[in-house]
Amino acid sequence: MNVAAGKAAMQSSIFSKGVPQKAVDGSTSRTYGADTCTLTEVEDAPWWYVNLLEPFLVQLVRVDFGRSCCANGVPATVIVRVGNSRPDLTANPICNRFSGKIEEGRPLFFPCTSTVTGAFVSVHVETPTPFSLSICETFVYTDQVTPVEQCPEFDQEAASVATYNGKCYLFYNKGPRTLDSATKFCSLQGGSLIHDTSPALQGFLSWELYKRHRKNPGSDYWNGAVRVPGSRDWKWVDGKDVTISFWSQPPKENNCSKFDGKNGWLWSDTECTNELNYICEHRPVICSKPERPANSTLLVRANAVGSTIEYQCNPGHLLLGPATRTCQPSGFFSEFAPKCSCKFRVRFSSQHTQRRLLLLLNGTKHFQSVVQYFCQDSYVLWAKRNLMCDADRKWDGPPPRCDRTYRAFTTLLMLQMLLQ
């Protein structure tokens, strides 16, 4: 899933109307266009980045460039970084890099060569001469995101949905309510009014509200922080203390709070009897479709939260990992998808001679196959007759030995004498 679309972006400079947001606006082009592509000044080592608002395990980045580079076949170097440090620097880990010609409208794919997690994805271009960077669209793919399809749906109230950190946020702006009414409504729907914050969560909510109301920023939303009457202390509607706050200005005499569209969606105090828009927070109600490894059967009875799925490997394959996984409240299945090891064949010892015969009891030479040994007439079998193929791709013992009958008789006689 692409998690970059619509997120906040920045770049090293802006030329004309080539603002950085055009690289994540959902539109791309095979040729440079001022309406769809970013553009920096001509500069050394230009860069562009997007703020994903929360850390993701990034697996693939696609960049559609709007302008070619470089003249006379001189290669450019494109470096994609992922991390949580300042993205305009070079401190974040490298996802992947490319050296060669940048072609207008041609997408470049950067599969991350190592496990990289971060909220910032940046594109850095190094060229022998100053260069004007243009990107028509950037895609950042991960499978560790909660799709809105996993969120609850309610027919009686229209709401737009966004997900963040494994939770669903339903934005209601068609029927304003008082704080008490909004709190009860969210609870009856199985959710809750916003009752927590952090720098990352505040950034996410501010951005989502900005996207929805960039043309009418006067549409305020309830925040679940309320003041204890007669004191300076603020608590969340669930009774927890407010330890982090994002006030646009110090609160005055009002005992309730809102996300203030006229002040960058920071907090402002307000009267509790006002009717405002509101946001309900929910947990996902289902998990996404689980992965099915090759050479396996996946038994899925349901994908609701709390349900369990089961993995079974095809005959001759070994299950590596958990046999069952549970759909968790986060919307993800527990643990990780197992693997079914491919069939493998095991060679027999070169000591097989005419005096020793073998029989494959189940006709195969892979995991859990059994071989049974026999000796020809006038020979006696020593050691285990049946051997099984283990997960380490070896038989669970050395092949037995076949000795002539008289030699075996002599050996037994000597053992009896020693025991006496």
UniProtKB/TrEMBL annotation:
One Gene Ontology MF term: fucose binding
Keyword vocabulary terms for this entry: Calcium, Disulfide bond, Lectin, Metal-binding, Signal, Sushi
Record bears the keyword Calcium: yes
Disulfide partners: C313-C340, C375-C402
GO biological process: regulation of cellular defense response; regulation of complement activation, lectin pathway
Annotated ranges, domain C-type lectin: 164-281
Record domain Sushi: where: 285-342, 348-404
PROSITE patterns listed in its UniProt record: C_TYPE_LECTIN_2, SUSHI
Subunit structure: Homotrimer.
Function: Acts as a defensive agent. Recognizes blood group fucosylated oligosaccharides including A, B, H and Lewis B-type antigens. Does not recognize Lewis A antigen and has low affinity for monovalent haptens.
Family in the record: Belongs to the fucolectin family.
PANTHER family (UniProt xref): F5_8 TYPE C DOMAIN-CONTAINING PROTEIN, FTP DOMAIN-CONTAINING PROTEIN
Protein name as it appears in the record: Sushi, von Willebrand factor type A, EGF and pentraxin domain-containing protein 1
Gene name linked to the record: Svep1_28
